[in-house]
Amino acid sequence: MVKSPIGLNLCSWNANGLLRRRVELRIFIEKHSPDIFLIQETHLRPSHTFTIANYTCYRNDRIINAAAAGGTLILIKKSLKHHCLPTPPLQAIEATNIILTPQDHDPVSIVSVYIPPPLTITYLQ
Is the pTM of this model over 0.90? Predict the structure, then answer.
């Protein structure tokens, strides 16, 4: 977990299948209470519901393959002022975007990004 410059605790996690690991996630959240949790490889489908008490959930599910794969999600504490940004069409990566709008700081963009193999950041440049 990392504390951001504006004093928030952020986590990022490649879940490799969120539904089968939701108990593990809930235990971690109860223990550490992160303000924002970025999750990659959720493997969620639009038909799946996923909620965590006291958090707002934003997600983008991969829906082009028959097999569950990919997907990104952001959990943010309901007490934090923010809004979701629509994700533009992306070719090689998957992402979910929010904007934090704290009263005493400039807006901050937070993005949960997944780059599926065999792609690399170098390839995307």
Answer: no
